[in-house]
């Protein structure tokens, strides 16, 4: 449809003014949707189904969304002044605002990841070969789907058949064997680097929230200790700014998910000092007090390797000045590929939903946060991931899949039935503006309803799920130390 547009120019990043072309917005939207399999992946009943009904095709939906961006841009009178037009960044912000406002979450995530990946390319933080686009290449997804197909769980319906037939234990064993093999490969890469003479002094285990970093860190270091490596682990939570420097939003929530939540400058200085053999005065942060309470001397001894388990271990400002030869960077993400239902709709389950379920359990058991608050907070989690974690994943020396097809049947009994943690729909009534949270809630509820779950006793028992499985970080019963759960 025709919309009024009085914006003539756009300011590029070099401040040059060029003609405003709304067609470029439409093209970018189409590309973002195509990268996830089309806008159909974002169809949310009761939210945006009217757009699909009226527009019909992806091209028409992209046109509608692009027109909405133009309308929003024209609402700011400053943009109508010829020499003070909107910048590229403002337009990109408005594209994301429009997508999320209409419930196109997955398209928005793909757009944001691509946007920030291009940012890191321009900054010179990543080479062109490390650019990951929307975060997950078609080749990687095909490989993940092929693995699920071999195990008979390419679809939720197939997974349910395995559970009903009592074949879940063999699925657990196969999946964990592949994970352990990937850990073996990571350890071999570290040892090969050392044997080749690399001055490797720092190992990062990075990845988005609830991907399984802690279990992976313990398992990797166990392998390396057998070869004589000694470690100094640095708790990066101690580098958080005080609570007074974390302003809250209107529901009293704070954004701890961005790298700027930490004192990056001090952390970088301390890393460089440790590598130079100096003793640092590492802060000691009290989460009860919400501030640094003390400091203690820490030194990296000769022959020790600095071990860091951190969301943002790939974030360039943290390791500025540290040679690449001194670092090994491992990236972990939940990448289980599975179609919803019987697969006829060609809609993939969302790997982020598995991590959200995991974090809901962790927060309620160990952070005194209700599952409702975890869902309401998740937009901060995704924003941080799409800026400083996933777009930088191409920098990793090794990637591990921390997602498993048996996660859903294992997690389900903790959310449904008597004592289940899944919030009730009525609990969202005071938060009607949190569309992101409501869409995620509806989606995980439909997903859990469609999954054949284990009994809670079977999930917690050691007979089916080993005590050192990643999912134990979240459901409990882990036989390895989980510091953030203590």
Please state roughly what percent of the residues sit in beta strands, choosing from under 5%, 5-15%, 15-25%, 25-35%, 35-45% or over 45%.
5-15%
Helix-and-strand structural type: alpha/beta
Say what the CATH topology of the largest domain is. Rossmann fold
Task: Summarize the main sheet.
Answer: 5 strands, parallel
Going by CATH, the homologous superfamily of the largest domain would be P-loop containing nucleotide triphosphate hydrolases
Number of E-type strands? 9
Q: How many helices does DSSP assign?
A: 16
Mean pLDDT: 94
End-to-end Cα distance, whole Å, is 57 Å
CATH class of the largest domain: Alpha Beta
SSE string: EEHHHHHHHHEHEHEEEEHHEHHHH
Give the strand order, joined by hyphens, for the main sheet: 4-7-3-8-9
Can you tell me the overall shape? globular
Task: Tell me the domain tally.
Answer: 2
Helix content percent band: 40-55%
Low-pLDDT residue spans: none
- Using the CA coordinates, give the radius of gyration: 23 Å
CATH architecture of the largest domain: 3-Layer(aba) Sandwich
